Structures are given as structure tokens and as C-alpha cells.
Amino acid sequence: MNVAKNMEVIAVAAAILVSASCYAIAPAAPALQVASTTATLAAPAGKAAMQVVVVKAKRLSGAEKARFA
Predict the structure, then answer these.
(1) Distant-in-sequence contacts of 27-30, Cβ < 8 A, 24+ apart
(2) What DSSP assignment string belongs to 18-65?
(3) For a Cys-Cys bond, which of 7, 35, 38, 64 suits 60, CB 3.0-4.6 Å?
(4) 16, HSE (Cβ side, Cα atoms, 13 Å)
């Protein structure tokens, strides 16, 4: 049997064996746990609760701006 002619088959078979062995020795995944809560936010019928994002950072000096430009 000429190994050079069958190198693709050998590589595919090796990949299948590696993936099957990785699947066989992998630990079982833990069950999905979802936190339950009874607290709800009630907004008036016409208004939805607005989310606010606050970004805090110092301004760059002229030298720092020039360095990034």
C-alpha cells in the first residue's frame, strides 16, 4: 500500500479518531441553572423604564491627542 497516495484518508481518519476520543473523555456538562426572582419593575402603561449609561473618563491633553493622531 502506497502511503503517499492515501495520505488524505489517513489524515481524515486521524481527525475522526481524535474528535471521537475528545468527545468520549469530556466531562459531563453541568445542568443549566437559572436564577429566579419575584421582583418586577412596574412602569406606567405609557412610559417604559429608560436605561441610563454614564461614562466617566478624563479628557485627553493636546499632547495625548497628538500622540494618537
Answers:
(1) none
(2) HHHHHHHHSPPPPPP------------TT-PPPP------PPPPHHHH
(3) 64
(4) 6
Radius of gyration of the chain (CA): 29
| pTM of the predicted structure, to 2 decimals | 0.36
Which of these, 30, 32, 50, 53, lies nearest to 41 by C-alpha position?
50
Q: For residue 28, what is its C-alpha cell?
A: 459531563
C-alpha cell of residue 39: 421582583
The rounded distance, in Å, linking the Cα atoms of 51 and 55 is 13
C-alpha cell at 58: 478624563
Q: How far apart are CA 41 and CA 35, in angstroms?
A: 17
